[in-house]
Specification:
The complex is a heterodimer of chains A (424) and B (251). Chain A has 424 residues and is mainly alpha-helical. Helices cover 66% and strands 3% of the residues of chain A. In chain A, helix 5 runs antiparallel to helix 14, helix 11 packs antiparallel against helix 14 and helix 12 packs across helix 14. The N and C termini of chain B lie far apart (40 Å). Classes of the chains: A mainly alpha (424), B alpha/beta (251).
Chain lengths: 424, 251
């Protein structure tokens, strides 16, 4: 039976199709004399749009019948009706898949374009940031809106130490993340008692303080002009530039006697980011299984019960802030090295918001989900570049859709079963 | 073992607890009863460090503990439950028991990252202890379920198990039988008795279920409107005129 309601719904869907195709395909309305003309598409595109709208209309109109018909068909998918995998098998399959993925990630930059490797480095930086924030927000349940401050501390530590004391990337990596961790602890102290909205506001303020400090302390940080000339990482003292910048170093291509290729530098940075991101993921993964990881989650679930069981709120919250900030420092150092130039503009509130969005989209507390979301959130806006000014609109719409239909995130946390021996 | 002397707790103009005294010996079950709003839970909150009492002393094992922070009191061996079940609902049943054993574990970061022998040994012991108590309260088959998905009675039992894995010396139970059916209450009765007999734990109990209280308590303290009304063995309390008046009203 075809109710009037069906017709109305189908019509609505068809109109939405027309409306959406307008921005997505980059059509424009222009005034030509007294008439309004649609530009930006040739006749075939317009025909395709109309055809799509008609297809949507017909499909929606007969939706019930179509689905009923589909339901009667035998299932073609070999994956359907299969027993779910046992826990051990699943874990094994997952670890093999992860290793293959890692191998692919190690080799592909040698075949990929310069631009995509550069983008991939950025993705990995966001992976590190998101994994770090996941500790604070996802596991410990402390809503931190100023996370970018630690990222800034890491980046500026490298830039300043290089400018004033000639530190190299590797030296700065540890000083930078150490200092970021220390800043994290400092922030942790005053906000120990706060939860939820209050905590969010204080951390937001903290993030702004750091940014404004960097902006206004002109003698030290160069203020809005930023700091340039930040060196690339070296490989055992080998530089990747055409000419050696520092006395005593030798360049990579001369050492191996190969022709100079500017891609080497990009690939090397990518590999460093990959190693650091993997390190971050593995260390946090271990933390999650350690007593402190369980304590974070317990504190998130029920602080009062946790305290009644003898958990020290102070040290556990501080450890979450410190560890989260440490990895932001990692990401900051890599970022400074990748850009070669940093200014307070890279560390605005929007960055914090994006990192938080990654954590929420991925599924709070879930590492794999967060990594996937970091990839999606960084790459999608790049892929959508053709949509020009509608890019952010699409990005926002995707996020809203995601939250409505899958509020638990891309890959919600799966609890790992623990085998128990029966007591004798 | 535990001695509460003239405990008072004032919230602004309201004197919620006024000069309450209480003592608990080794291996003893002491109940606190009283009408709703009498201040029983406030006494608990003072004892467990959630409130800082306005007056009086709380002495545990010869040390004054009033005003100490809650987790420190817990680490001394006084562990409590709550009127409403407070489990870590999104964590599994075993994880709930492992979190509770934080004090028994090696919480050094480096030890955990490097999995030192001591770290592994303690994790293993914690798992064994968890397994033992799961078996004891009959939740072994549900070990890897999320705690929030358990039935109410099971959640109550898990909460007690979670206290017991900390190996406390004094257990404070705040209305453990609330919301349980008669069969479950009987089980609880046996469990609490066995905690005292088999595990040398003293119990302080707040409870409204009078048959449970009268059956298992060694001594009972009655509080009314924040003030101590009577104290003594179940029989003495049952026949005390003031108590009857407070519960049944004056005739």
């Amino acid at each position: 039976m075809m109710a009037a309601q069906n017709v109305k719904h189908a019509l609505f869907c068809a109109i939405i199709t027309l409306v959406i195709s307008y921005p997505i395909l980059g059509l424009k309305l222009e005034a030509a004399g007294i008439r309004v003309v649609l530009t930006g598409a040739d006749a075939s595109t317009l025909v395709a749009i109309v055809a799509a709208a008609v297809a949507v209309f017909v499909f929606q109109l007969f939706r019930d019948t179509i689905f009923k018909g589909l339901g009667r068909l035998p299932s073609f998918s070999p994956l359907a009706n299969r027993e779910p995998m046992s826990q051990e098998k699943r874990a094994r399959v997952e670890s093999i898949a992860l290793i293959l993925l890692l191998m692919a990630a190690l080799t592909w930059p040698f075949f990929a374009s310069r631009g995509s490797v550069d983008l991939a480095t950025l993705v990995l930086i966001y992976v590190m940031l998101a994994l770090g924030l996941n500790v604070v927000v996802g596991l410990a349940g402390l809503l931190d809106l100023g996370y970018v401050a630690f990222y800034a501390v890491g980046a500026y530590t490298f830039a300043l130490l290089h400018q004033y004391f000639d530190f190299t990337f590797w030296q700065a990596l540890f000083v930078g993340s150490g200092l970021a961790a220390f800043t994290g602890m400092l922030l942790g102290f005053p906000v120990l008692r706060l939860r939820g909205d209050y905590l969010a506001i204080v951390t937001l303020g903290f993030g702004e303080i750091i940014r404004i400090l960097l902006n206004n302390w002109t003698q030290l940080t160069g203020g809005p002009n930023g700091i340039g000339g930040i060196p690339d990482p070296t490989l055992f003292g080998m530089e990747f530039g055409r000419r050696v910048k520092e006395e005593g170093n030798i360049s990579f291509h001369e050492f191996f006697n190969i022709p100079y290729d500017s891609n080497h530098k990009i690939i090397f940075l990518y590999l460093i980011a990959l190693v650091l991101a993997t390190f971050t993921a593995l260390v946090i993964r271990r933390f999650m299984k350690m007593p402190v990881g369980r304590a974070w989650e317990a504190l998130r679930e029920d602080e009062i019960a946790a305290r009644s069981l003898g958990l020290n709120r102070t040290s556990i919250k501080l450890s979450a802030f410190t560890i989260g900030a440490f990895f932001a420092g990692f990401a900051g150092t890599v970022f400074a090295s990748k850009q070669g130039f940093i200014s307070p503009e890279s560390f605005v509130f929007l960055e914090s918001a994006i990192i938080l969005a990654i954590v929420v989209l991925g599924g709070m507390g879930s590492q794999l989900g967060v990594i996937l979301a970091a990839i999606a959130v960084t790459i999608l806006p790049e892929l959508a570049r053709e949509f020009s000014e509608y890019r952010m609109l699409i990005f926002g719409a995707a996020m809203v859709t995601m939250m409505v239909w899958r509020p638990q995130g891309l890959m919600p946390v799966r609890r790992i079963p623990i085998k128990l021996k029966k007591a004798e | 073992m535990l001695e509460v002397r003239n405990l008072s707790m004032r919230f602004g103009g309201l004197l919620a607890v006024d000069q309450v005294s209480l003592d608990v010996q080794e291996q003893e079950i002491v109940s606190i009863i009283g009408p709703n709003g009498a201040g029983k839970t406030t006494v608990f909150n003072c004892m467990s460090g959630f409130y800082k009492p306005s007056g009086g002393q709380i002495i545990f094992d010869g040390k004054e503990i009033q005003g100490k922070s809650d987790h420190k009191i817990s680490l001394m061996g006084m562990v409590r439950t709550f009127q409403h079940v407070r489990l870590f609902t999104k964590m599994t049943v075993v994880e709930n028991l492992l979190v509770a054993q934080h004090r028994h574990l090696n919480t050094n970061f480096m030890a955990g990252l490097l999995k030192t022998p001591d770290y592994r040994e303690r994790e293993r012991k914690a798992l064994d202890r968890a397994a033992y108590w799961l078996e004891r309260v009959g939740l072994m088959d549900l070990a890897n379920r999320e705690a929030g998905n358990l039935a109410y009675g099971q959640q109550r039992r898990l909460e007690i198990a979670r206290c017991m894995v900390t190996e406390p010396r004094l257990l404070m139970l705040d209305e453990p039988a609330a919301g349980l059916n008669p069969a479950e209450t009987r089980e609880l009765n046996q469990l609490i008795n066995s905690l005292k007999e088999d595990y040398n734990v003293s119990v302080v109990l707040i409870e409204h279920d009078m048959s449970l209280v009268m059956e298992i308590s060694d001594r009972i303290t009655v509080i009314n409107q924040g003030r101590p009304l009577a104290a003594g063995t179940p029989d003495e309390v049952r026949n005390n005129d003031d108590v009857i008046k407070a519960y049944l009203g004056e005739t």
